[in-house]
Amino acid sequence: MLEVDNIHVNYGRLQALRGVSLSVREGEIVCVVGPNGAGKSTTLGAIAGGVTPHAGRITLRGQSLGGLPPEAVARLGVSLVPEGRHVFGSLTVAENLRIGTFQRRDRAAVAADFERILEHFPRLRERLQQPAGRLSGGEQQMLVIGRALMTRPRLVMVDEPSLGLAPKIVDQVYDILIKLRHAANLTLLINEQSSERVLKFADRIYVMRGGRIHLEDRAANLQDGKAIMQAYFGFADGTGAPPPLSPAPTMKRAAE
Amino acid sequence: MIGFLQNLIDALSLGSLYALAALGIGLLFGILRLTNFAHGDFISFGAYALIVPSLEVTATKFIGNWPWYLTLPAIAALVVLLALLSDFLVFRKLRQASAPTLMIASFAVGYVIQNVILMVYGARPKAIDVWSSLQQQVVIGELRVPQLQLVTIGITIVLMLGLSLFLNRTSYGVQMRAAAEDFRMARYLGVKANFVIGLAFAISGLLAAMVSLLFVSQTGTLSYVMGVPLMLFAFIATVIGGMGSLIGAVIGGFAVGFVSVMCQAYLPEELRSFRDAFVFAIVIAVLIFRPSGLIPTKALVQRV
Question: What is the mean pLDDT of residues A192-218?
Fold first, then answer.
Protein backbone atom coordinates (compact mmCIF):
# COMPACT_ATOMS: atom_id res chain seq x y z
CA MET A 1 0.00 0.00 0.00
CA LEU A 2 2.71 2.46 1.05
CA GLU A 3 6.23 2.36 -0.32
CA VAL A 4 8.95 4.64 0.99
CA ASP A 5 12.01 4.30 -1.19
CA ASN A 6 15.38 5.64 -0.06
CA ILE A 7 14.31 9.10 1.11
CA HIS A 8 16.78 11.70 2.36
CA VAL A 9 15.76 14.72 4.46
CA ASN A 10 18.01 17.54 5.64
CA TYR A 11 17.26 20.26 8.13
CA GLY A 12 19.83 22.85 7.21
CA ARG A 13 23.14 21.02 7.58
CA LEU A 14 21.71 18.29 9.77
CA GLN A 15 20.94 15.06 7.95
CA ALA A 16 17.74 13.80 9.54
CA LEU A 17 17.08 10.91 7.15
CA ARG A 18 19.90 9.23 5.26
CA GLY A 19 18.15 6.87 2.90
CA VAL A 20 15.09 5.43 4.62
CA SER A 21 13.06 2.74 2.91
CA LEU A 22 10.04 1.03 4.36
CA SER A 23 6.80 -0.45 3.18
CA VAL A 24 3.39 -1.00 4.68
CA ARG A 25 0.93 -3.52 3.28
CA GLU A 26 -2.85 -3.20 3.35
CA GLY A 27 -4.24 -4.08 6.79
CA GLU A 28 -0.88 -4.34 8.55
CA ILE A 29 0.26 -2.80 11.81
CA VAL A 30 3.81 -1.63 11.30
CA CYS A 31 5.83 -0.03 14.09
CA VAL A 32 8.93 2.08 13.79
CA VAL A 33 11.00 1.89 16.95
CA GLY A 34 14.01 4.01 17.75
CA PRO A 35 15.55 6.46 20.18
CA ASN A 36 14.77 10.14 20.35
CA GLY A 37 16.20 11.91 17.31
CA ALA A 38 16.38 8.79 15.16
CA GLY A 39 14.25 10.36 12.45
CA LYS A 40 10.96 8.58 13.18
CA SER A 41 8.83 11.73 13.24
CA THR A 42 10.58 13.09 10.18
CA THR A 43 9.73 9.90 8.31
CA LEU A 44 6.03 10.23 9.12
CA GLY A 45 6.17 13.95 8.32
CA ALA A 46 7.68 13.20 4.92
CA ILE A 47 4.94 10.67 4.13
CA ALA A 48 2.24 13.13 5.22
CA GLY A 49 3.67 15.90 3.04
CA GLY A 50 4.75 18.16 5.90
CA VAL A 51 8.45 17.64 5.23
CA THR A 52 9.91 17.58 1.73
CA PRO A 53 12.60 14.95 1.09
CA HIS A 54 15.38 16.09 -1.23
CA ALA A 55 15.80 12.61 -2.64
CA GLY A 56 13.84 9.39 -2.80
CA ARG A 57 10.29 8.36 -3.66
CA ILE A 58 7.11 7.85 -1.66
CA THR A 59 4.20 6.10 -3.32
CA LEU A 60 0.73 5.29 -2.05
CA ARG A 61 -1.00 2.51 -3.98
CA GLY A 62 1.25 3.22 -6.91
CA GLN A 63 0.62 6.97 -6.88
CA SER A 64 3.60 9.20 -6.16
CA LEU A 65 3.18 11.54 -3.18
CA GLY A 66 6.23 13.60 -4.19
CA GLY A 67 5.55 17.32 -3.97
CA LEU A 68 1.96 16.98 -2.75
CA PRO A 69 1.00 19.41 0.05
CA PRO A 70 -0.24 17.89 3.32
CA GLU A 71 -3.89 18.62 2.55
CA ALA A 72 -3.67 16.67 -0.72
CA VAL A 73 -2.05 13.67 1.00
CA ALA A 74 -4.79 13.79 3.66
CA ARG A 75 -7.42 13.67 0.93
CA LEU A 76 -5.82 10.52 -0.45
CA GLY A 77 -6.66 8.74 2.80
CA VAL A 78 -3.52 9.20 4.88
CA SER A 79 -4.04 10.65 8.34
CA LEU A 80 -1.20 11.68 10.62
CA VAL A 81 -1.62 11.96 14.37
CA PRO A 82 1.50 13.93 15.22
CA GLU A 83 3.52 13.72 18.39
CA GLY A 84 2.30 16.02 21.14
CA ARG A 85 -1.37 15.68 20.13
CA HIS A 86 -2.04 19.12 18.65
CA VAL A 87 -5.70 19.51 19.54
CA PHE A 88 -7.23 22.84 18.51
CA GLY A 89 -7.54 24.03 22.08
CA SER A 90 -9.98 26.90 21.56
CA LEU A 91 -12.30 24.86 19.36
CA THR A 92 -14.89 22.60 20.95
CA VAL A 93 -14.43 18.85 20.97
CA ALA A 94 -17.19 18.53 18.35
CA GLU A 95 -15.52 21.13 16.09
CA ASN A 96 -12.20 19.33 16.44
CA LEU A 97 -13.83 16.10 15.31
CA ARG A 98 -15.54 17.78 12.35
CA ILE A 99 -12.47 19.62 10.98
CA GLY A 100 -11.38 16.68 8.89
CA THR A 101 -14.84 16.07 7.41
CA PHE A 102 -15.43 19.33 5.60
CA GLN A 103 -13.97 18.02 2.38
CA ARG A 104 -16.25 14.98 2.49
CA ARG A 105 -19.44 15.07 0.46
CA ASP A 106 -21.22 12.14 2.10
CA ARG A 107 -23.06 14.00 4.89
CA ALA A 108 -24.97 10.93 6.09
CA ALA A 109 -21.80 8.86 6.40
CA VAL A 110 -20.12 11.70 8.30
CA ALA A 111 -22.93 11.69 10.83
CA ALA A 112 -22.67 7.91 11.14
CA ASP A 113 -18.89 8.11 11.65
CA PHE A 114 -19.38 10.77 14.27
CA GLU A 115 -21.69 8.47 16.23
CA ARG A 116 -19.41 5.47 15.78
CA ILE A 117 -16.37 7.35 17.08
CA LEU A 118 -18.28 8.66 20.08
CA GLU A 119 -19.22 5.05 20.86
CA HIS A 120 -15.53 4.21 21.02
CA PHE A 121 -14.76 7.32 23.06
CA PRO A 122 -17.67 7.85 25.47
CA ARG A 123 -15.61 10.42 27.42
CA LEU A 124 -15.64 12.70 24.40
CA ARG A 125 -19.41 12.55 24.11
CA GLU A 126 -19.75 14.03 27.60
CA ARG A 127 -17.51 16.94 26.59
CA LEU A 128 -18.62 17.66 23.03
CA GLN A 129 -19.29 21.37 23.59
CA GLN A 130 -16.24 22.05 25.77
CA PRO A 131 -13.07 23.65 24.41
CA ALA A 132 -10.66 20.84 23.60
CA GLY A 133 -7.90 22.61 25.52
CA ARG A 134 -9.64 21.71 28.78
CA LEU A 135 -9.43 17.95 28.24
CA SER A 136 -6.89 15.84 30.10
CA GLY A 137 -3.85 14.50 28.24
CA GLY A 138 -5.43 11.09 27.78
CA GLU A 139 -8.70 12.56 26.53
CA GLN A 140 -6.78 14.76 24.10
CA GLN A 141 -5.00 11.70 22.74
CA MET A 142 -8.40 10.02 22.25
CA LEU A 143 -9.67 13.16 20.55
CA VAL A 144 -6.82 13.39 18.04
CA ILE A 145 -7.20 9.72 17.16
CA GLY A 146 -10.96 10.17 16.74
CA ARG A 147 -10.34 13.33 14.72
CA ALA A 148 -7.95 11.50 12.41
CA LEU A 149 -10.51 8.73 11.89
CA MET A 150 -13.22 11.24 10.93
CA THR A 151 -11.34 11.83 7.67
CA ARG A 152 -12.07 8.18 6.76
CA PRO A 153 -8.42 7.33 6.30
CA ARG A 154 -7.07 4.06 4.90
CA LEU A 155 -3.69 4.58 6.53
CA VAL A 156 -3.37 6.11 9.99
CA MET A 157 0.08 7.14 11.18
CA VAL A 158 0.43 7.71 14.92
CA ASP A 159 3.56 9.40 16.24
CA GLU A 160 4.43 8.28 19.77
CA PRO A 161 0.90 7.85 21.16
CA SER A 162 2.34 7.05 24.59
CA LEU A 163 4.30 10.28 24.93
CA GLY A 164 3.53 11.99 28.23
CA LEU A 165 0.69 9.66 29.22
CA ALA A 166 0.31 7.39 32.25
CA PRO A 167 0.87 3.68 31.42
CA LYS A 168 -2.76 2.86 32.18
CA ILE A 169 -3.95 5.47 29.68
CA VAL A 170 -1.44 4.22 27.11
CA ASP A 171 -2.97 0.74 27.44
CA GLN A 172 -6.39 2.21 26.75
CA VAL A 173 -5.12 4.13 23.73
CA TYR A 174 -3.59 0.99 22.23
CA ASP A 175 -6.67 -1.09 23.02
CA ILE A 176 -8.78 1.35 21.09
CA LEU A 177 -6.35 1.59 18.18
CA ILE A 178 -6.35 -2.18 17.79
CA LYS A 179 -10.12 -2.42 18.15
CA LEU A 180 -10.58 0.32 15.58
CA ARG A 181 -8.19 -1.34 13.21
CA HIS A 182 -10.60 -4.23 12.82
CA ALA A 183 -13.78 -2.14 12.98
CA ALA A 184 -12.66 0.44 10.42
CA ASN A 185 -10.38 -1.77 8.37
CA LEU A 186 -7.34 0.39 8.98
CA THR A 187 -3.71 0.11 8.19
CA LEU A 188 -1.52 1.48 10.98
CA LEU A 189 1.99 2.88 11.02
CA ILE A 190 3.06 3.69 14.59
CA ASN A 191 6.21 5.31 15.99
CA GLU A 192 7.37 4.42 19.48
CA GLN A 193 10.54 4.86 21.48
CA SER A 194 10.12 1.58 23.30
CA SER A 195 9.66 -1.74 21.56
CA GLU A 196 8.27 -3.51 24.63
CA ARG A 197 4.62 -2.70 24.11
CA VAL A 198 4.47 -2.76 20.33
CA LEU A 199 5.98 -6.27 20.15
CA LYS A 200 2.64 -7.57 21.44
CA PHE A 201 0.50 -6.46 18.53
CA ALA A 202 2.64 -5.24 15.64
CA ASP A 203 2.91 -7.34 12.50
CA ARG A 204 6.29 -5.97 11.51
CA ILE A 205 8.86 -3.76 13.18
CA TYR A 206 11.49 -1.41 11.86
CA VAL A 207 14.29 -0.19 14.13
CA MET A 208 15.61 3.24 13.29
CA ARG A 209 18.68 5.05 14.52
CA GLY A 210 20.65 8.04 13.25
CA GLY A 211 18.39 8.59 10.25
CA ARG A 212 18.68 5.02 8.95
CA ILE A 213 16.72 1.79 9.25
CA HIS A 214 18.88 -0.73 11.08
CA LEU A 215 16.52 -3.67 11.29
CA GLU A 216 13.33 -4.88 9.70
CA ASP A 217 11.57 -8.08 10.63
CA ARG A 218 8.27 -9.68 11.54
CA ALA A 219 7.43 -9.02 15.17
CA ALA A 220 7.11 -12.77 15.73
CA ASN A 221 10.81 -13.17 15.01
CA LEU A 222 11.87 -10.45 17.41
CA GLN A 223 10.13 -11.50 20.60
CA ASP A 224 13.33 -12.15 22.58
CA GLY A 225 14.28 -8.48 22.04
CA LYS A 226 18.00 -9.18 21.44
CA ALA A 227 18.07 -8.21 17.80
CA ILE A 228 16.12 -5.05 18.58
CA MET A 229 18.55 -4.08 21.35
CA GLN A 230 21.44 -4.56 19.01
CA ALA A 231 19.93 -2.43 16.27
CA TYR A 232 18.55 0.16 18.69
CA PHE A 233 21.83 0.87 20.46
CA GLY A 234 24.21 -0.25 17.75
CA PHE A 235 26.10 -2.73 19.92
CA ALA A 236 28.31 -5.03 17.94
CA ASP A 237 28.09 -8.20 20.03
CA GLY A 238 24.47 -8.18 21.08
CA THR A 239 25.28 -8.77 24.75
CA GLY A 240 23.38 -5.72 25.82
CA ALA A 241 26.55 -3.99 27.01
CA PRO A 242 27.94 -0.98 25.20
CA PRO A 243 31.31 -1.43 23.52
CA PRO A 244 33.92 0.20 25.73
CA LEU A 245 35.49 2.81 23.47
CA SER A 246 33.00 3.75 20.76
CA PRO A 247 31.77 7.32 20.98
CA ALA A 248 28.17 7.85 21.94
CA PRO A 249 25.96 8.47 18.94
CA THR A 250 25.04 12.14 18.70
CA MET A 251 21.33 12.62 18.76
CA LYS A 252 19.92 15.96 17.90
CA ARG A 253 16.58 17.05 19.13
CA ALA A 254 16.15 19.24 16.08
CA ALA A 255 15.59 16.15 13.98
CA GLU A 256 12.17 15.74 15.52
CA MET B 1 -22.61 64.26 32.48
CA ILE B 2 -24.01 65.09 29.04
CA GLY B 3 -20.53 66.11 28.01
CA PHE B 4 -19.18 62.75 29.08
CA LEU B 5 -21.91 60.86 27.22
CA GLN B 6 -21.13 62.90 24.13
CA ASN B 7 -17.46 61.98 24.46
CA LEU B 8 -18.39 58.37 25.01
CA ILE B 9 -20.25 58.26 21.71
CA ASP B 10 -17.28 59.91 20.00
CA ALA B 11 -15.05 57.27 21.55
CA LEU B 12 -17.33 54.44 20.42
CA SER B 13 -17.39 55.75 16.90
CA LEU B 14 -13.63 56.27 16.66
CA GLY B 15 -13.06 52.96 18.44
CA SER B 16 -15.30 51.28 15.86
CA LEU B 17 -12.98 52.34 13.05
CA TYR B 18 -9.91 51.18 14.94
CA ALA B 19 -11.59 47.93 15.88
CA LEU B 20 -12.59 47.16 12.28
CA ALA B 21 -9.10 47.95 11.03
CA ALA B 22 -7.55 45.94 13.86
CA LEU B 23 -9.76 42.95 13.03
CA GLY B 24 -8.47 42.99 9.47
CA ILE B 25 -4.89 42.97 10.73
CA GLY B 26 -5.52 40.44 13.50
CA LEU B 27 -7.19 37.97 11.16
CA LEU B 28 -4.15 37.78 8.88
CA PHE B 29 -1.76 37.68 11.79
CA GLY B 30 -3.66 34.80 13.37
CA ILE B 31 -3.51 32.64 10.29
CA LEU B 32 -0.36 33.71 8.50
CA ARG B 33 1.79 35.39 11.19
CA LEU B 34 1.69 38.31 8.79
CA THR B 35 1.62 41.79 10.31
CA ASN B 36 0.10 43.45 7.30
CA PHE B 37 1.31 47.04 7.20
CA ALA B 38 -0.29 47.39 3.77
CA HIS B 39 -3.69 47.29 5.47
CA GLY B 40 -3.73 51.08 5.80
CA ASP B 41 -3.07 51.39 2.10
CA PHE B 42 -5.93 48.99 1.36
CA ILE B 43 -8.03 51.56 3.22
CA SER B 44 -6.64 54.50 1.20
CA PHE B 45 -7.25 52.58 -2.02
CA GLY B 46 -10.88 51.97 -1.07
CA ALA B 47 -11.39 55.70 -0.53
CA TYR B 48 -9.69 56.73 -3.79
CA ALA B 49 -11.75 54.18 -5.70
CA LEU B 50 -14.74 56.48 -5.10
CA ILE B 51 -13.49 59.06 -7.59
CA VAL B 52 -12.46 59.24 -11.23
CA PRO B 53 -8.70 58.67 -11.59
CA SER B 54 -7.08 62.01 -12.53
CA LEU B 55 -4.36 64.37 -11.38
CA GLU B 56 -6.78 67.29 -11.07
CA VAL B 57 -7.14 69.03 -7.74
CA THR B 58 -10.87 68.67 -7.52
CA ALA B 59 -12.23 65.21 -7.15
CA THR B 60 -14.92 64.01 -9.52
CA LYS B 61 -16.97 61.32 -7.87
CA PHE B 62 -17.68 58.20 -9.84
CA ILE B 63 -18.54 55.18 -7.71
CA GLY B 64 -19.08 57.71 -4.93
CA ASN B 65 -22.08 59.10 -6.83
CA TRP B 66 -23.89 55.80 -6.96
CA PRO B 67 -26.62 55.05 -4.43
CA TRP B 68 -25.15 53.56 -1.25
CA TYR B 69 -26.44 50.06 -1.91
CA LEU B 70 -24.28 50.01 -5.05
CA THR B 71 -21.32 51.97 -3.66
CA LEU B 72 -20.85 49.61 -0.70
CA PRO B 73 -20.55 46.37 -2.67
CA ALA B 74 -18.53 48.02 -5.47
CA ILE B 75 -15.87 49.41 -3.12
CA ALA B 76 -15.88 46.20 -1.11
CA ALA B 77 -15.32 44.16 -4.27
CA LEU B 78 -12.43 46.38 -5.40
CA VAL B 79 -10.59 46.28 -2.06
CA VAL B 80 -11.16 42.53 -1.71
CA LEU B 81 -9.67 42.17 -5.19
CA LEU B 82 -6.64 44.22 -4.18
CA ALA B 83 -6.16 42.13 -1.04
CA LEU B 84 -6.41 38.87 -2.98
CA LEU B 85 -4.06 40.23 -5.62
CA SER B 86 -1.42 41.15 -3.05
CA ASP B 87 -1.67 37.62 -1.65
CA PHE B 88 -1.44 36.09 -5.10
CA LEU B 89 1.45 38.24 -6.34
CA VAL B 90 3.50 38.62 -3.17
CA PHE B 91 2.57 36.72 -0.04
CA ARG B 92 1.86 33.40 -1.74
CA LYS B 93 5.49 33.28 -2.87
CA LEU B 94 6.56 33.78 0.74
CA ARG B 95 4.61 30.99 2.45
CA GLN B 96 7.76 29.51 3.97
CA ALA B 97 9.15 32.90 5.00
CA SER B 98 9.57 34.05 8.59
CA ALA B 99 7.24 36.57 10.25
CA PRO B 100 9.71 39.50 9.95
CA THR B 101 10.20 38.78 6.23
CA LEU B 102 6.43 38.81 5.73
CA MET B 103 6.16 42.09 7.61
CA ILE B 104 8.82 43.75 5.47
CA ALA B 105 7.12 42.41 2.35
CA SER B 106 3.91 44.04 3.56
CA PHE B 107 5.72 47.39 3.86
CA ALA B 108 6.78 46.94 0.24
CA VAL B 109 3.22 46.18 -0.85
CA GLY B 110 2.05 49.27 1.04
CA TYR B 111 4.63 51.49 -0.66
CA VAL B 112 3.66 50.19 -4.07
CA ILE B 113 -0.01 50.95 -3.44
CA GLN B 114 0.81 54.41 -2.02
CA ASN B 115 2.97 55.31 -5.00
CA VAL B 116 0.49 54.04 -7.54
CA ILE B 117 -2.13 56.27 -5.89
CA LEU B 118 0.41 59.11 -5.99
CA MET B 119 1.02 58.63 -9.71
CA VAL B 120 -2.59 58.22 -10.69
CA TYR B 121 -4.28 60.75 -8.40
CA GLY B 122 -1.50 63.19 -7.50
CA ALA B 123 0.02 64.11 -4.15
CA ARG B 124 -2.33 66.90 -3.11
CA PRO B 125 -5.14 66.00 -0.75
CA LYS B 126 -8.57 66.26 -2.35
CA ALA B 127 -11.83 67.26 -0.81
CA ILE B 128 -14.66 64.83 -1.33
CA ASP B 129 -18.03 64.72 0.22
CA VAL B 130 -19.62 61.34 0.54
CA TRP B 131 -22.96 60.89 2.27
CA SER B 132 -22.81 64.40 3.69
CA SER B 133 -26.47 64.15 4.63
CA LEU B 134 -25.25 61.86 7.41
CA GLN B 135 -23.58 64.84 9.07
CA GLN B 136 -27.03 65.92 10.30
CA GLN B 137 -27.45 65.55 13.99
CA VAL B 138 -29.90 63.38 15.79
CA VAL B 139 -31.15 64.87 19.02
CA ILE B 140 -31.65 62.36 21.80
CA GLY B 141 -32.71 64.26 24.93
CA GLU B 142 -29.89 66.75 25.39
CA LEU B 143 -27.47 64.72 23.28
CA ARG B 144 -26.70 65.80 19.74
CA VAL B 145 -25.19 62.95 17.77
CA PRO B 146 -24.20 63.07 14.10
CA GLN B 147 -26.03 60.33 12.21
CA LEU B 148 -22.70 59.25 10.79
CA GLN B 149 -21.46 58.21 14.21
CA LEU B 150 -24.53 56.07 14.74
CA VAL B 151 -24.10 54.56 11.27
CA THR B 152 -20.43 53.83 12.04
CA ILE B 153 -21.27 52.12 15.30
CA GLY B 154 -24.16 50.24 13.66
CA ILE B 155 -22.07 48.98 10.73
CA THR B 156 -19.34 47.89 13.12
CA ILE B 157 -21.81 45.90 15.21
CA VAL B 158 -23.26 44.26 12.11
CA LEU B 159 -19.82 43.36 10.72
CA MET B 160 -18.64 41.94 14.03
CA LEU B 161 -21.77 39.86 14.49
CA GLY B 162 -21.45 38.67 10.90
CA LEU B 163 -17.79 37.75 11.34
CA SER B 164 -18.50 35.98 14.60
CA LEU B 165 -21.36 33.99 13.06
CA PHE B 166 -19.15 33.13 10.11
CA LEU B 167 -16.28 31.95 12.31
CA ASN B 168 -18.44 29.95 14.69
CA ARG B 169 -21.29 28.61 12.61
CA THR B 170 -19.90 27.81 9.17
CA SER B 171 -17.51 25.08 8.20
CA TYR B 172 -15.17 27.59 6.54
CA GLY B 173 -15.13 29.61 9.72
CA VAL B 174 -14.24 26.58 11.83
CA GLN B 175 -11.45 25.75 9.37
CA MET B 176 -10.13 29.29 9.68
CA ARG B 177 -10.10 29.14 13.46
CA ALA B 178 -8.34 25.79 13.36
CA ALA B 179 -5.80 27.13 10.88
CA ALA B 180 -5.21 30.18 13.04
CA GLU B 181 -4.44 27.96 15.99
CA ASP B 182 -2.30 25.26 14.41
CA PHE B 183 -1.88 25.72 10.69
CA ARG B 184 0.21 22.62 10.06
CA MET B 185 -2.19 20.33 11.92
CA ALA B 186 -5.14 21.78 10.04
CA ARG B 187 -3.44 20.91 6.76
CA TYR B 188 -2.74 17.35 7.94
CA LEU B 189 -6.52 17.09 8.35
CA GLY B 190 -7.19 18.20 4.79
CA VAL B 191 -7.82 21.92 5.30
CA LYS B 192 -6.68 23.66 2.10
CA ALA B 193 -4.02 26.17 3.03
CA ASN B 194 -4.26 28.58 0.12
CA PHE B 195 -8.03 28.61 0.26
CA VAL B 196 -8.18 29.49 3.96
CA ILE B 197 -5.50 32.16 3.54
CA GLY B 198 -7.31 33.61 0.53
CA LEU B 199 -10.49 33.75 2.57
CA ALA B 200 -8.68 35.61 5.34
CA PHE B 201 -7.31 38.14 2.84
CA ALA B 202 -10.78 38.60 1.35
CA ILE B 203 -12.40 39.25 4.75
CA SER B 204 -9.56 41.57 5.68
CA GLY B 205 -10.15 43.46 2.41
CA LEU B 206 -13.87 43.67 3.11
CA LEU B 207 -13.21 45.16 6.54
CA ALA B 208 -10.71 47.63 5.04
CA ALA B 209 -13.30 48.73 2.47
CA MET B 210 -15.86 49.49 5.18
CA VAL B 211 -13.27 51.46 7.14
CA SER B 212 -12.42 53.50 4.01
CA LEU B 213 -16.03 54.45 3.42
CA LEU B 214 -16.74 55.35 7.03
CA PHE B 215 -13.46 57.20 7.44
CA VAL B 216 -13.73 59.25 4.26
CA SER B 217 -17.29 60.25 4.98
CA GLN B 218 -16.09 61.47 8.39
CA THR B 219 -13.06 63.42 7.22
CA GLY B 220 -14.18 64.46 3.74
CA THR B 221 -10.62 64.38 2.42
CA LEU B 222 -8.55 62.01 0.35
CA SER B 223 -4.82 61.74 0.78
CA TYR B 224 -2.43 59.05 -0.36
CA VAL B 225 -1.20 58.57 3.22
CA MET B 226 -4.66 58.70 4.81
CA GLY B 227 -4.56 55.03 5.78
CA VAL B 228 -1.21 55.23 7.58
CA PRO B 229 -2.34 56.69 10.92
CA LEU B 230 -5.36 54.35 10.94
CA MET B 231 -3.04 51.41 10.34
CA LEU B 232 -0.75 52.59 13.12
CA PHE B 233 -3.52 52.86 15.69
CA ALA B 234 -5.12 49.62 14.55
CA PHE B 235 -1.77 47.87 14.84
CA ILE B 236 -1.37 49.22 18.36
CA ALA B 237 -4.88 47.98 19.08
CA THR B 238 -3.97 44.43 18.03
CA VAL B 239 -0.83 44.55 20.17
CA ILE B 240 -2.73 45.77 23.23
CA GLY B 241 -5.48 43.25 22.63
CA GLY B 242 -3.02 40.38 22.24
CA MET B 243 -1.69 39.60 18.76
CA GLY B 244 -3.72 36.87 17.11
CA SER B 245 -6.79 37.22 19.30
CA LEU B 246 -9.75 38.62 17.38
CA ILE B 247 -11.69 39.57 20.48
CA GLY B 248 -8.49 41.18 21.70
CA ALA B 249 -8.25 43.21 18.49
CA VAL B 250 -11.79 44.51 18.96
CA ILE B 251 -11.25 45.33 22.63
CA GLY B 252 -7.90 46.93 21.79
CA GLY B 253 -9.50 49.02 19.04
CA PHE B 254 -12.19 50.37 21.33
CA ALA B 255 -9.64 50.93 24.10
CA VAL B 256 -7.38 53.00 21.86
CA GLY B 257 -10.38 54.96 20.57
CA PHE B 258 -11.58 55.58 24.10
CA VAL B 259 -8.23 56.72 25.45
CA SER B 260 -7.65 58.92 22.43
CA VAL B 261 -11.01 60.70 22.68
CA MET B 262 -10.82 61.08 26.44
CA CYS B 263 -7.30 62.55 26.23
CA GLN B 264 -8.60 64.99 23.64
CA ALA B 265 -11.51 65.96 25.86
CA TYR B 266 -10.03 66.08 29.33
CA LEU B 267 -6.35 66.94 28.95
CA PRO B 268 -5.52 70.54 29.88
CA GLU B 269 -5.71 72.81 26.85
CA GLU B 270 -1.97 73.34 26.47
CA LEU B 271 -1.27 69.57 26.49
CA ARG B 272 -3.90 68.59 23.94
CA SER B 273 -1.57 68.88 20.98
CA PHE B 274 0.49 66.13 22.59
CA ARG B 275 -2.53 63.86 22.81
CA ASP B 276 -0.96 60.99 20.88
CA ALA B 277 2.06 61.01 23.18
CA PHE B 278 -0.29 60.45 26.11
CA VAL B 279 -2.10 57.69 24.24
CA PHE B 280 1.18 55.93 23.52
CA ALA B 281 2.33 56.37 27.13
CA ILE B 282 -0.81 54.55 28.26
CA VAL B 283 -0.14 51.86 25.67
CA ILE B 284 3.38 51.40 27.05
CA ALA B 285 1.99 51.19 30.58
CA VAL B 286 -0.49 48.50 29.52
CA LEU B 287 2.25 46.50 27.85
CA ILE B 288 4.51 46.73 30.90
CA PHE B 289 1.84 45.13 33.03
CA ARG B 290 0.48 42.76 30.39
CA PRO B 291 3.30 42.13 27.93
CA SER B 292 1.30 39.69 25.80
CA GLY B 293 -1.77 41.91 25.61
CA LEU B 294 -5.13 42.00 27.29
CA ILE B 295 -6.18 38.65 25.80
CA PRO B 296 -3.01 36.59 25.45
CA THR B 297 -2.98 33.83 22.85
CA LYS B 298 -0.69 31.02 21.98
CA ALA B 299 -0.10 32.69 18.64
CA LEU B 300 3.06 34.38 19.86
CA VAL B 301 4.66 31.14 20.94
CA GLN B 302 7.12 30.14 18.27
CA ARG B 303 5.93 27.08 16.43
CA VAL B 304 8.47 24.30 15.95
Answer: 87
Q: Calculate what percentage of chain A has a pLDDT beyond 70.
A: 91
Domain extent, residue B296, equals 2-300
Report yes or no on A248 lying in a domain.
no
**Residue A92 banded pLDDT, cuts 50, 70, 90:** very high
Q: Give dist(CA A175, CA A184) in Å, integer.
A: 14
Chain A neighbors of B31, CB-CB under 8 A: none
Domain with A204 in it: what CATH number? 3.40.50.300
Closest CA to B63 of B53, B55, B73, B51: B51
- State pLDDT tens for residues B162-192: 999 999 999 999 999 998 888 889 999 999 9
Residue A116 lies in a domain: no
Select from B174, B181, B188 the Cβ nearest to the Cβ of A48. B188
**CB-based contacts of B134, cutoff 8 Å, min separation 6:** B146, B147, B148, B151, B217
CB contact under 8 A, A99 and B175: yes
pTM of the predicted model as reported, rounded to 2 decimal places: 0.84
Is residue A204 within 8 A of residue A23, CB to CB? The reply is no
Contact (CB, 8 A) for A104 and A161: no
**Quick one: B266 exposed, middle or buried, by C-beta within 10 A (0-12, 13-18, 19+)?**
exposed
Least confident of A89-103, A113-127, B124-138, B209-223: B124-138
Phi, psi of A136 (to 5 degrees): -75, 165
Does residue A166 form part of some domain?
Answer: yes
Distances (CA, A) of A29 to A158, A189, A195, A199: 11, 6, 14, 11
As a whole-number percent, the residues of chain A with pLDDT over 90 amount to 35
ipTM field: 0.86
Nearest to A90 among B175, B181, B188 (CB): B181
Domain of A57, in residue numbers? 2-85+154-238
| Residue among A70, A71, A88 whose CB faces B178 most closely | A88
Specify the number of domains making up chain A: 1
Task: Tell whether A185 is covered by a domain.
Answer: yes
Does the structure show a pLDDT above 60 at B303?
Answer: no
Spatial distance between the Cα atoms of B262 and B265, rounded to a whole number of angstroms: 5
